[in-house]
DNA sequence: CGATAAGCGAGACGGTACGTCACGTCTTGGC
DNA sequence: GCCAAGACGTGACGTACCGTCTCGCTTATCG
């Protein structure tokens, strides 16, 4: 992961400010267009208009770059406090479905699976994904529990797995079948999904 | 995909019968051990004890080999007729969870996601996955409908997506957290999942 | 080298009579067109209209085939008894120049040089070339000595080397310069060459 | 042929200075030890201690590398001004005989013949050989003509062909017969050859 | 005549080298 | 000391050819 800003302000030329964002964006675009094979560091550097050394100065290798590129965009997921559990979950599920249907969101999924396959280096990324994504659901559940909408004994992971799993499989099957994006359909699926989850946790 | 059997019985030396299976098995093992990067055709050929030409004679490139290796093993999933919808779904969910936790099953997922990302060549594979996996659920649902256990108006795709999505996300989260396999836990999850689905389709 | 005819007349199907000549001819043509690199056994077999096994049944490997193809054609060189040393040498030199300018003759030279570079297996070929070519000159010289035209003390090798070396370098330089074949020029060169040799051996 | 030195001084890392010489030397050694077959680019790169990309960056393919390797060493032939035509020719003939008996010189011959067979790409190499080798003889002849030792009407090519052809055939026949190198014999042959040429051009 | 044997065209086989390409590192001059 | 450019050593890619092998077939001799 890139060395965060700040630091003791070294002596030489400072790192070009916009470089990191340009590179991360280029990485995501390349990954989206060409997939893992066909995703080359040279192409990323060329597309970002920087030299390879600038890339390798910030990320140790290909995996690290791609992982962070994907994490950054996956992290943008936010939730709103609508006042009801159903409203919160509806917003989350809708965002998630839309996210997974976007190139960046889809890339997130793929990288997550790749990372989950490599036992050695999953530390940072899995933690990031688990925490960032899981945290949102925990917040929602906590609010619901505070309001008395939800049994305090229920583990929020159940909700997380249900929503994320459904969104993932939905996105996958649509892609396999070549279906087109359809906002109304996504909303409908979100509603169906949330009601199912509510049914389950109040069962 | 390898040229199917049969044909007009060409004139030259026939292709070595066992070669394809050996190569596919070697491919799966290599993929399981080393992941996509680190999966090399030379290693597959060496492990299978064949020359590279023998591999490339059957599969056009790395992707094609891996795709078929994974499809073959993903296709082995079968179901049993236990006499009840719940029993059928329990067997399916249990098999699926165990499958996705195995190296070959996990590889299936990864390759499926990769294939779903490449719009050009998903034809054969996505059809295979959709049909083979979807067909099992359709059979189960048809039997349930015949027995009057299930409302004929329900689209089996709902069941498929729920079970596969849950199995997938479950396998993913276990891997991300480094959890170990646990038969009892898998059975418990399967039961929980099936009951959720039943709750949904009888809602 | 191919097993000559005759033999005890085995039991199985006899070797197809014309095959050897077809293969040798095809080999020479391939060599002439594509050189050593680009000279492939598959192409030879295809051009000759036979299977590879038919080729390998007769020659142990590529070298052996090419060597014999070239030897066969190099061996066709014959001389005539014109009654005078100068006439005999003129005929020989003319034939030789023409031979080296033909594709087959040029191939002979190239293969000879290749063979001369491989110390292990030059046995058969070098003997063939030395004897076949050297023998002609020896015969001419013997007749000349018998007629009293030539000092018996002169080693015929001198004549051989002079004529063959000149013909070889002549052919080489013409090729390097892209000059076209020219019968009259060849005859002129032959005459000049022979007179030079005569000058030398009567010196 | 490798891009000559100089140039506009590009921006990236300069090509490693010694690499070309190391590679050319390694190529000659490999060729000398293993001949054309058995001459592999991997082995050349390994022996030179460089990567294959470094080789292919400079030479387009195997032929180009070998051709230049041989040209470089063939070009080293120089002559001395001994003050007499016979002395100059003796020195040249001696050098040439020794050159053709050395592995590098012999390789020059072989490659020259190969190049002379490929009509497409003989441009650079044949010109190099013709000019470099022919130029030496022209210089010798010019000096002889200036001194009045040689009829100005004689074309120096006659001398070139005679000396080079004799040296070539001599080296070839020695190799075919497996004769060992013998300095005294080479000098004797050189003297005999030069006297023959002198006899001819003063005839 | 049928059995036996070898040649034959076709082409798959295990290897190995080809020439290309990407990785991650290193080395310039310029900023 | 960061940067763009690009050469470097390494190693996998997918192709092509080597020399061997295994088919089904043909063409001979021998019993």
From TrEMBL, chains A, B, C, D:
Supply the PROSITE patterns for this chain.
HTH_TETR_2
State the source organism's domain of life.
Bacteria
Per UniProt, which keywords does this protein have? DNA-binding, Transcription, Transcription regulation
Start and end of every HTH tetR-type domain?
17-77
Q: Which SUPFAM superfamilies match?
A: Homeodomain-like, Tetracyclin repressor-like, C-terminal domain
Q: What is this protein called?
A: TetR family transcriptional regulator
Classification via InterPro entries: Homeodomain-like_sf (IPR009057), HTH-type_TetR-like_transc_reg (IPR050109), HTH_TetR (IPR001647), Tet_transcr_reg_TetR-rel_C_sf (IPR036271), TetR_C (IPR011075)
Q: Which residues bind DNA?
A: 40-59
Query: Which Pfam families did the record assign?
Result: TetR_C_11, TetR_N
The record's GO molecular-function terms, alphabetically, read: DNA-binding transcription factor activity; transcription cis-regulatory region binding
Q: Where does the record locate the signal sequence feature?
A: none
């Amino acid at each position: 992961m890139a060395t965060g800003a700040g630091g003791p302000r070294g002596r030489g030329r400072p790192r070009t400010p916009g470089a990191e964002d340009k590179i991360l964006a280029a990485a995501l675009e390349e990954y989206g267009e060409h997939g893992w094979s066909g995703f080359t560091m040279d192409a990323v550097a060329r597309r970002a208009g920087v030299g390879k050394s600038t890339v390798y100065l910030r990320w140790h290798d290909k995996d690290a770059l791609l992982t962070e590129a994907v994490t950054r965009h996956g992290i943008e997921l936010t939730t709103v406090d609508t006042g009801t559990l159903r409203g919160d979950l509806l917003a989350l599920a809708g965002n998630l479905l839309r996210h997974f249907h976007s190139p960046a969101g889809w890339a997130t999924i793929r990288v997550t699976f790749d990372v989950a396959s490599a036992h050695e280096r999953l530390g940072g990324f899995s933690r990031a994904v688990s925490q960032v994504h899981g945290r949102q659901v925990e917040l929602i559940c906590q609010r619901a529990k505070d309001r008395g909408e939800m049994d305090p004994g229920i583990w929020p992971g159940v909700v997380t797995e249900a929503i994320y799993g459904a969104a993932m499989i939905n996105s996958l099957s649509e892609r396999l079948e070549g279906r087109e994006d359809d906002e109304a359909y996504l909303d409908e699926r979100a509603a169906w999904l949330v009601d199912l989850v509510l049914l389950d946790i109040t069962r």
